[in-house]
Amino acid sequence: MTTPAQDAPLVFPSVAFRPVRLLLISIGITAVAVVAAALSGHLMLGVFFGVGLLLGLLNALLVRRSVDSITSQENPMKRSMAINSASRLAIMTVVALAIAYLFRPAGLGVMFGLALFQVLLVISTAVPVWKKLRAGVPGESSAGPEERGTGK
Q: Cα–Cα distance between 113 and 110 in angstroms, integer?
């Protein structure tokens, strides 16, 4: 018998999320963006770009916190994670859009910063995992889940 998807427990693989590294990269990109924006006469666009990067980092930290909190429960459910994600993303979206609207046109830098942060997050987590997969994990076989005894 299988468990319906909405009742299945949450299982998250460990990921190579390094917030300090992302913060340092974000600070470096913000510095370059501020200098480039200042040279083009739009200093605040660069500043808001950095705000967007930092909002993206805040969102990623909140994701990690909520995943840790929800998966530490005795019976973590996908519904809890979905509700948490939807509410967090709604709040982040409202904040970013409010900044973009209130400080337009330079405030649009927040949206670009958020978008770039998502790219940085994917790259910074995917590359170490990809390298590990290419190198091969000791003790792991190429057998499928049924052969390893983890299938249903």
A: 5
Work out the angle at residue 123's Cα, subtended by the Cα atoms of residues 120 and 125, and round it to the nearest 5 degrees.
Answer: 105
Q: Report whether 92 contacts 55 (CB < 8 A).
A: yes
Question: Nearest 10 degrees: CA dihedral of 146, 149, 151, 152?
Answer: 110
Q: Is the pTM of this model over 0.90?
A: no
Q: What is the pLDDT along the chain (152 residues), one digit of tens a residue?
A: 555 555 555 444 555 678 899 999 999 999 999 999 999 999 999 999 999 999 999 999 998 888 888 878 777 777 888 888 899 999 999 999 999 999 999 999 999 999 999 999 989 888 877 887 787 755 554 444 544 445 44
Q: Any residues with CB less than 8 A from the CB of 74 and at least 6 apart, and which?
A: none
